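[Discussion] Sanity-checking designs against the backbone

I'm trying to build intuition for which residues belong where. Below is a structure token string of 402 positions. I'd appreciate it if someone posts a full sequence so I can compare it with mine line by line.
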């Protein structure tokens, strides 16, 4: 249970922090990134310092019984304020914050800093001689000054969770949100909802002690797993909101490069220079170079492209049952393959057959490249063309019958 409740969320939060750390360092002036880094760092500190082993170690090193209590309460309070700072800063957008928003941020920072400052004097005034590693909240629930300190951090945490849930709910309902951001906000909303359950469980156990009843299991057995699940959702929400669009864009770039590979390899057989390989080139730059190379070679192949062959290949593809869009791509692939063969032999199309307009190919290099992967379909179309399948038409999709 200790491994699940403390170690797992610590690892997940640390991974989320490591994912965002290079961007935070590079763009330190961005208030959104600073807020994200602060929340993740404080959340990691909470689960490290609030584990029973670390609490016992801090008490032993200082020689003061239960001195880890105000440390843990201060970290939880700071993390609660950081949650609000993140949402307010995030909601203000990258274009800057208004005077009212900056005033709210200052009030939140000052308020939670004051709560942290009050917790230490309350601990010094409290009489807590017996060390309690797991159940300090309920064991000292009726102890003067310690009672107020416990109630203070629980209310600060609960109020922050309520405000965060309300802000996130209103934000999720707004129009025009990116899908990644919307799902990230939903995960964060679930995380703060679970944090509210954590506060409610702790507070219920404390109130039960005030009433002379024993509900310590809510504080020791229910609250820690709920808090760990909340931390995991926080890490997932932050990663999904901030890293999801970037990873999705990179995936689309790699996918487009992969789709263009067959046409790129075919264009390299023409004997022209290939795209220079640069180790530090970004995926976007490599994609741009590949697209430019393909279009340049297609322009040089324009005098070897045969419109008549393309028209017959298009009608053959239609006769074989391919839909018009795929038929156009397959016909263009057949025409481009034949053009590369003519270039090797130096044979031009017949004078009666005008050259194929390359502008269609330049716009649709993606579908043409995907069509080159369908080797069986291309072979069937070429066989049909060689056997005299000719109904008329062209690569633009129009058909004419004699």
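Best answer:
Here's mine. Compare freely.
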């Amino acid at each position: 249970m200790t491994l699940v409740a403390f170690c797992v969320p610590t690892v997940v939060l640390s991974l989320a922090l490591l994912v965002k750390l290079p961007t935070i360092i590079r763009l330190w002036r961005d208030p959104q990134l600073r807020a994200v880094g602060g929340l993740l760092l404080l959340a990691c500190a909470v689960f490290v310092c609030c584990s029973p082993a670390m609490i016992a170690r801090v008490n032993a090193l200082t020689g003061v019984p239960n001195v880890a209590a105000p440390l843990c309460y201060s970290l939880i309070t700071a993390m609660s304020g950081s949650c609000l700072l993140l949402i307010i800063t995030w909601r203000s957008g990258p274009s800057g914050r208004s005077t009212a928003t900056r005033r709210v941020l200052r009030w939140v920072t000052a308020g939670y800093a004051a709560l942290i400052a009050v917790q230490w004097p309350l601990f010094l005034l409290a009489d807590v001689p017996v060390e309690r590693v797991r159940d300090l909240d309920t064991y000292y629930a009726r102890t003067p000054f310690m009672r107020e300190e416990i109630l203070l951090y629980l209310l600060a945490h609960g109020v922050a969770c309520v405000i965060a849930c309300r802000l996130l709910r209103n934000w999720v309902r707004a129009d025009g949100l990116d899908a990644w951001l919307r799902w990230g906000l939903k995960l964060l909303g679930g995380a703060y909802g679970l944090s509210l359950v954590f506060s409610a469980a702790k507070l219920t156990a404390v109130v039960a002690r005030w009433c002379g009843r024993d509900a310590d299991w809510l504080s020791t057995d229910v609250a820690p797993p709920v808090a760990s699940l909340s931390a995991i959702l926080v890490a997932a929400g932050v990663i999904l909101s901030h890293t999801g669009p970037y990873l999705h864009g990179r995936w689309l770039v790699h996918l487009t490069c992969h789709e263009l590979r067959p046409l790129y390899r075919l264009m390299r057989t023409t004997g022209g220079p290939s795209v220079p390989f640069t180790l530090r080139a970004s995926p976007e730059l490599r994609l741009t170079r590949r697209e430019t190379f393909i279009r340049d070679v297609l322009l040089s192949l324009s005098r070897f492209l045969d419109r008549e062959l393309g028209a017959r290949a298009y009608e053959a593809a239609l006769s074989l049952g391919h839909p018009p869009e795929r038929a156009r791509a397959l016909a263009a692939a057949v025409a481009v393959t034949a053009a590369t063969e003519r270039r090797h032999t130096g044979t031009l199309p017949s004078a009666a057959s005008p050259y194929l307009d390359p502008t269609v190919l330049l716009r649709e290099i993606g579908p043409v490249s995907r069509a080159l992967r369908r080797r069986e379909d291309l072979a069937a179309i070429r066989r049909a063309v060689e056997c005299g399948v000719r109904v008329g038409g062209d690569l633009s999709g129009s058909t004419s019958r004699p």
